[in-house]
Design a protein that fits this description.
53% helix; four-stranded antiparallel β-sheet; six-stranded mixed β-sheet; 12 helices; Rossmann fold; single chain; alpha/beta
Length: 334
Amino acid sequence: MSGPHPAVAALRSAVQDELTLVAARSDTGALVLVACSGGADSLALAAATAFVAPRAGLRAGAVVVDHGLAPGSDAVARRAAEQCRDLGLDPVEVVVATVGASGGPEAAARMARYAALDDVAHRYGAEAVLLAHTLDDQAETVLLGLARGSGARSLAGMTARRGLLHRPLLGVRRRQTLEACAAQGLEPWHDPTNTPSPDEGGANLRALVRHDVLPVLERVLGPGVALALARTADQLRADTEVLEDLAFQLLAAARDGGGEVGALDVTRLAAAPDAVRRRALHAAMAGWGFGAAHAVHVDAVDALVVGWRGQGPAAVPGGSVVRRYGRLAPDVST
């Protein structure tokens, strides 16, 4: 008797590798949840998880997040939930997320989605939430980060696991999820925002990268561009994690020595390598409650450390940072 379709086998193998790690640290019968939109990637992940989880001694359920941003989104969410139940996942919950306006529509939807997933996971006591990002998603993320000049953290792409969130499909191609759905008789929902329209004016950059940019790179540079971009992310992530660990050590050292709470000693900061210091300053701004800082904001704050000429506060999203008596701190006078 022949085995499963190669794409189905690839999905199950990727999920088995991840769930083996989850099971090793969990009690028998612990719950994992699949974040399922009803699209091919998440539906294929749901099917693989439904097959693998019981064999790993785990229970498997699903969360369907309805962002409510398009007409008929509730029907799409209900259909995705029905498909998850048909696969044997339990519990299956549909959550209507409240999407704000912070950081643009895509970022706001992502923040709302992750908040909803975190809430459901904690209510059910889940050990992990599985996300369906593929190798192709990773390649697109790296390419977008490169185009925006976002630095090593963005080029490092998405992590395989962080906290409750696990991404078991980062080594799986998008075409394999489509093939796996077809082989198992699953009918995925095709998100229209993933197909660029001439009328969009470039609004959906990821869709344009997917359908226009990556195919051109593959044609000009040869096949394997997506794989190379994903490999680059893996290599940079390892380097970035070391640098960020050093940056947090620097922050802890710079906070020692008295002074106002949260202020940073400039002498300690100035003695650190540029790559470590700049990461430390970026983390400090986040800790002070400022918004998403870009390179230009880090440059301005860094100048208070290594380019000090008696200048005034450095403007950052949501406020400013000031240097007083050899220490950096948020400027409470603004």
